[in-house]
Amino acid sequence: MADQIPLYPVRGAAAVASRKRAAYYSAAGPGAERPGRFQLEDESAHLDEMPLMMSEEGFENDESDYHTLPRARISQRKRGLEWFVCGGWKFLCTSCCDWLINICQRKRELKARTVWLGYPEKCEEKHPRNSIKNQKYNVFTFIPGVLYEQFKFFLNLYFLIVSCSQFVPALKIGYLYTYWAPLGFVLAVTIVREAVDEFRRFQRDKEVNSQLYSKLTVRGKVQVKSSDIQVGDLIIVEKNQRIPSDMVFLRTSEKAGSCFIRTDQLDGETDWKLKVAVSCTQRLPALGEDSDPPVHESLSIENTLWASTIVASGTVIGVVIYTGKETRSVMNTSNPKNKVGLLDLELNQLTKALFLALVALSLVMVTLQGFVGPWYRNLFRFLLLFSYIIPISLRVNLDMGKAAYGWMIMRDENIPGTVVRTSTIPEELGRLVYLLTDKTGTLTQNEMIFKRLHLGTVSYGTDTMDEIQSHVMNSYSQMYSQASGNNASSTPPRKAQSSAPKVRKSVSSRVHEAVKAIALCHNVTPVYEARAGVTGETEYAEVDQDFSDENRTYQASSPDEVALVQWTESVGLTLVNRDLTSMQLRTPGGQILTYCVLQMFPFTSESKRMGVIVRDESTAEITFYMKGADVAMSTIVQYNDWLEEECGNMAREGLRTLVVAKRALTEEQYQDFESRYSQAKLSVHDRTLKVAAVVESLEREMELLCLTGVEDQLQADVRPTLEMLRNAGIKIWMLTGDKLETATCIAKSSHLVSRTQDIHTFRPVTSRGEAHLELNAFRRKHDCALVISGDSLEVCLRYYEHELAELACQCPAVVCCRCSPTQKARIVKLLQQRTGKRTCAIGDGGNDVSMIQAADCGIGIEGKEGKQASLAADFSITQFKHIGRLLMVHGRSSYKRSAALGQFVMHRGLIISTMQAVFSSVFYFASVPLYQGFLMVGYATIYTMFPVFSLVLDQDVKPEMAMLYPELYKDLTKGRSLSFKTFLVWVLISIYQGGILMYGALLLFESEFVHVVAISFTALILTELLMVALTVRTWHWLMVVAEFLSLGCYIASLAFLNEYFDVAFITTVTFLWKVSAITVVSCLPLYVLKYLKRKLSPPSYSKLTS
């Protein structure tokens, strides 16, 4: 065998393509074939100046007659001071950072590499290690990384500064523990949580990296760890073992010279892919022998084995080409980002507003003091005195609330198996506007079932399949009785019919022809699993008797194909064996029919059809069978009046249709075709076009046999769930790697696109001009769903990103088909940037991971396609229908509860700051604390914590109501539960109550001025407990317990706090009635206002509950 095979990397193609593209766009000049306007060098310049929305004529003659879209480019021209102040500085900073990062992480150019088989040490360049790393931090970056994530929030940074200021004696107010204890608690909880998550990731990576593989060396087989594999190693991969890196497939134990791999972790498809060993190495008697002369053989994608796929049949030997970061699976996934909820960002903004209020209040105090003495020190002391305006307990309460929501979600019996993996963003589930979903395995079960066979005059459904079975049995029994009658089976009776087309065929023979065509025209391979107890490798069964049905499974690149072959088996014609050159069918009578495969024309997304030419071994008849989409086949088959109508009918039922046709060829016709075909395949220029032209010469006047309908079963309750989400105001986009027809079909059958809506299919575009015209055409459509393919999307995003996003966002539904994983993630990011709305991505395969990680909220489904998506997601569910309850009930209540909790905690800080301000102003603006030491810590913890935190149990409507009226969810997306308006209301309440409590205490207690602290503090605690009761919408028994527990704690602690309270005075009646009077004045007006508001303008949920 050749010591050295120069292997040109598969990835080199991308680089070549981009170079060609660049050349295409730069190539121009007088020789260009297009007339003036379309000369390519001007094209981009012209299009830059041209408004996008023009009529086609305007495109030709520059007369704009169509309203233009706001252009992204125009806004960028506003440079100068105004631009710099309005955010230009931020843009410059990020640009500089990106530039530095790019320099540090400069991507290596991918160029052709020479690989020495079995001699990795001979490689000149260095290649990355073959280890998988999903961790966010390492030992050194963990603590700095976690602290940075915490202190980048204004709230936490503020507390750090305030706490540090207490080490300065002149600024010290109260005790150190009042500041450091809450901050330390928050940080400890965060660090422990991150450490646990990080350790789990580390364990998962270690498990994968330490898997053992056999490596072929000069000394024989050696065991090697996955992470120690290098470029050039010859690795043996057993059946059901994961392929550790991208390899070229050299040899297999299978006799056919091919093997199957499962790619579900790479592209999310559960069907197996056929891979072919390099023929020169497969033919060698043993690896390691030199071949003379050197062999030159071109490699194709079929000769590659990719990392993270699994060998499904036989044992394979491959040479490692790409490792670690350079493997296809790693390059297709993006780094996970730390997700921060919108609610947290909004609260962060509110804390900034509170900080400004704090500074203003302190300045006012110092001004009223008259700037006497060291006023700046007084200013800082006032800042510290009023620092409770921004409560540290806000983060603690919210984090504990998030943990509680996660626990509730996982405990919900209506959505069993749901796992919360990211506990920081449960409120995001209540703010979603865009839901981006995968199709296969998410909306559908990825299980195909044969539903309909239509022959033009007669149609068979699931209930009449037994008729087909009897027709097939009759045909074969007649054929064999006649064959045995003629004792030489030269010409079966159907030969006579085909020579006289005028005679109408009987239904029986037409059914038989159709079934035989479906059984032969496909790329399915039957695989025989070794029976339990039989040792040795799984081989295809060699002898006919071994074709036992219970061991057979079918494998193909598409589940549709498998469904068709399984159906032919159910009606009596069974595919029992298949290799690269022949197929064997078993008839209902048990005879084996052998067909020689002369040519295969695989399915491509351009041709939308596949064909096969077979020779029947018994009769030597050559037949060309073909099947494909109706759009492709309608022009190929003979004229008929039923095909188009029936295809429409089946598509409306949600079936995937295929048209099957055949053409009998004579030996001369075939020989002529074969010579032309071989010649076309050897041509250097325009090979694909020439090959297609030769094949098309056969595709004329084919005899239409039948139309088949296969159903991809939807997941349980997909239609009502999508309906519910649409009513909740969520726009649903379907991003799939599947074909355009299939995607459109599922969009209709799942009611993603409603029956009455038009569908605009975006034509394939390859250049800027085409994209321009196609966007114009789409602009004129109103209220129609958009279906666009990945390639067209790529072109539009390159030139007209802003325009495409604006148009697509107006659509009720969007379907993107033939999307790569990175494209899916790009669409998510585009929506986030262009709309600023919250996005959610849901998928179930390895190909959805990038999209799930890019979205604000990622949901993974544990499906047939493995657990990769569910492990990468923030939330993991077991069925698509659970998303309805997850959003409508848990998302909605999490958001409303957190909004109430956040504002209440702020109110708690504001009210005590107001009292401090009143106290200071009465006492000649002295910067002296009103409440010291334990009173302050107790106020934020044991006295009010339980009732305030019990707000996480509050609900405005019952879960059943929230599911029944998804429109309630729509209100949340506007963010009205937590806005500057609601926040202002709480600020006014706090100022009113703080003022009443302090002035009331000062008015009623002129004689016992020393008791002001006791009176005001008791009234404050009572007010807080009553305010919780006012905020609650639905009582829970734990809330009542929390209220009384807190009150009990306070009364019990009065006995111990002798330094603040005079016990003899507290027990008097005058103390009790005066405290009660102050509390009533501070709370009663609010109860009255709340009652009037409920009566005069009730919220939407209260209309449902009444």
Automatic annotation (TrEMBL):
Residue numbers binding ATP: D438, K439, T440, E561, F603, K627, R656, T736, G737, D738, R818, K824, N847, D848
EC category name: translocase
Domain P-type ATPase N-terminal intervals: 123-180
Topology class, membrane: Multi-pass membrane protein
Binding sites annotated in the UniProt record for Mg(2+): D438, T440, D844, D848
Membrane-traversing stretches: 177-196, 353-373, 379-398, 905-927, 933-953, 983-1003, 1009-1030, 1037-1057, 1063-1089
Cellular location(s): Golgi apparatus, trans-Golgi network membrane; Membrane
Stated family: Belongs to the cation transport ATPase (P-type) (TC 3.A.3) family. Type IV subfamily.
NCBIfam families on file: ATPase-Plipid (TIGR01652), ATPase_P-type (TIGR01494)
Protein name per the record: Phospholipid-transporting ATPase
Provenance organism: Equus caballus
